[in-house]
Design brief:
Blueprint lengths: L1 H16 L4 H22 L7 H17 L6 H7 L4 H12 L3 H17 L6 H7 L5 H12 L3 H19 L1
């Protein structure tokens, strides 16, 4: 529930802010909300976890969302919520549907897309800002998740944005 509310809050802020590229950011947030709703409906009401476990995983999700730019380690998160690393991974996957590492990486990649839309940030800047240990590690994760390198993705969206602007004027 907290992820859903967080996404709704971010969507509301994006709409109210009227920042450049807000339409693309809103689309991305809406897609995340839709995926979350589909996953929740397909799993029912988060089975297999007792309330204390659900609370711990929700707390872990909050930690991930608040500190995803830090160099977070799954073992550190597990310790903060009171579980061994292995038990935490099992509970997290049961609750969220993917491993905590994949969740954290996907979150970072989604946030990197917003940063890559700003020409003043290099791929290296984005990689280090999001807590990747190197630009190569970031590029590899980005390519694996999105299917394009960060530079190619940036070029594609910058060209798309320029064509939209030229159509408007």
């Amino acid at each position: 529930m907290s992820i859903f509310l967080d996404l709704c809050y971010r969507l509301q802020r994006e709409i109210a802010g009227s920042l450049p590229f807000s339409e693309m950011q809103c689309q991305a947030l809406l897609q995340q909300i839709i995926v979350l709703l589909f996953r929740t409906s397909s799993r029912g009401d988060l089975p297999y976890l007792i309330p204390q476990q659900q609370h711990a995983i929700e707390k872990a999700l909050q930690i991930i969302h608040l500190r995803n730019q830090d160099n977070l380690r799954i073992g550190e998160i597990a310790a903060e919520v009171g579980f061994s690393s292995q038990h935490f991974r099992e509970l997290f996957k049961r609750y969220v549907g993917i491993s905590p590492k994949k969740y954290l990486t996907t979150l970072k990649i989604q946030r990197s897309k917003c940063l890559l839309l700003h020409k003043e940030y290099s791929v290296t800047d984005v990689a280090y800002h999001l807590g990747f240990s190197s630009p190569q590690q970031f590029s590899k994760a980005f390519r694996k998740t999105i299917g394009l390198s960060p530079l190619l993705w940036r070029k594609a969206y910058m060209l798309q944005d320029e064509s939209v602007l030229s159509e408007k004027y």
